[in-house]
Amino acid sequence: MASLVNCANGLRRIDFVAPDGKRRCVRLGRCNKRAAQTALAFIERVVSDNDLGRPHDAETTAWIISLAPTLLARLQRVGLVGADVGAMNLTLGELIGRFVGAANVKPSTLAAYKQATSSLLAHFGAGLPIRDITPMSAAEWRKSLADSGLAPATQAKRVFVAKAIFKRAIRWGLLARSPFDGLRAGSQTNPKRSVYVPRDITQRVLDACPDDQWRAIIALARFVGLRVPSEIVGLTWGDVDWDRGRLTIRSPKTERHADHAVRIAPLAPEVRGILLRLFERAQHGEELIVPRLQHASTNLRTHLHRIIERAGVTPWPRLFQNLRASCATDWVERFPAHTVAHWLGHSPMIAAQHYLQVRDQHFDDAAGLTDGNAQQKAQHNAQQTAPAGDGQRRTQDKANRRKPLLCREIDHSWQSVETPDKMQEWAILDSNQ
Description:
- Residues about 385-390 and about 400-433 have low confidence and may be disordered.
- The termini are far apart.
- The protein has helices at about 35-50, 60-65, 70-75, 90-100, 105-125, 135-145, 150-170, 200-205, 210-225, 270-280, 300-310, 320-330, 335-345, 350-355, 360-365, 375-385, 390-400, 405-410, 420-430, and strands spanning about 1-5, 10-15, 25-30, 240, 245-250, 260-265.
- β4 and β5 form a beta hairpin.
- The strands form two sheets. A three-stranded antiparallel beta sheet has the order 1-2-3. A three-stranded antiparallel beta sheet has the order 4-5-6.
- It folds into four domains: about 1-85, no CATH class; about 90-190, Orthogonal Bundle (DNA polymerase, domain 1); about 200-355, Intergrase catalytic core (hpI Integrase, Chain A, Orthogonal Bundle), CATH 1.10.443.10; about 395-430, no CATH class.
- By secondary structure, it is mainly α.
């Protein structure tokens, strides 16, 4: 099928018969016998695959990708490899450009992509061929993220994007395997930034708002779980069902998924009064509930930060995200998880990973220290603080006798240093227990 020919001056070539019956050759140049034999074996595979019309296996594809541009061009000239395989020499900058150009995602997701791609380009360089990125160099990039002091969730997000970029390269036939395979991304959640915003704190913030439009933004996020601003910006009065107490929500974030473009959520009583005031003051023909959000120059995060400080409250991390998460936490304590997930527009698994929070109230409820057990708790505290009677004194004396000697010496009920006689007396008492 193919044969290795040794030429003068150490040059070598491989002769083979093309599908059209003509004899052709691939010049290898100067190379050792072992490299020439390897090239011969793979070229025979390529010729066989082309004759049978079957795709190359992973090992053959990896060999083609590893070829120097000059030898790859020679294979293309004789028809062994298609012209599009030249894209295998794509640089990292070109691959990222293709990936971003083909991404059908929202602008916010593109912004997250840009952070990850900028990190890749800064570390590897835009002109580095993607075939030259090895698992070792990918691991070094991963370590550089940790050394830079980025939060673990941020590191995980960037690794996730990098893995997605190179998986797409494999799907496009540009790589046989990804150098980022096996690289652990980690969790994209950061529990330290998850904060439950209580209702009383929310009310203080609502009271500090300059107008009802701001109150609507905060209340819709905290008590209906809307995403800010994407799910509030297009909210209209036609989406409010006053009689049935329901709100129709259109979600740009999930509209790509089947049956997730529109959802129905309950109109919480904390929101109804605010929306009624806005409706009464709305200008004739005004459809939008919060017209302020139409202005792209409005910096919601900065304004909310000021409102929270005006309310005398310390701003919490992830201002709007934690309002939505607090709503999810409240709802899941009262309603089935699948119902809450439907109202909020995500799956129960996503809710558990990114929204649901463990509150101090949960510990108090489990320990029986809630307001419903206030009388029992008061009686317990009274018993702990009541003067010791004879029975209690005897019980306490018995407990003290069981204490180790060192503990008795530092016990606040014994201020003097134990004498040898007293220590002997304690030893006799201990032996009688």
